[in-house]
Input
Amino acid sequence: MKKNIGKPKPYPHVGHFLKRKRIAAGLSQRQVCEALGYSSTQFISNWERGLASPPMGALARLVQIYKIGKNDFMEEMMRDKKLAIEGELGLAFRRRLKA
Output
């Protein structure tokens, strides 16, 4: 199995946010998986590790399950999207050079 060594996770903020909110809601990955109709907890694990983002169809349900604000969730998703765009454009690297 290949490891993601040295490669940044594409969704670090969303992953951390979802894990924190799941734990705060007192839910297991299995419970979330079942509530969303998935057969494997691997989906939830990949989100929480920042390796994948929930599909658009699951977002509204996650907001309900975790009892979180839509804007808070969207803000975390936008932070990751901004990092991805900056990475593609090389902006993060340029900022570090200026510092």
In short: The chain is about 70% helix and 0% strand.
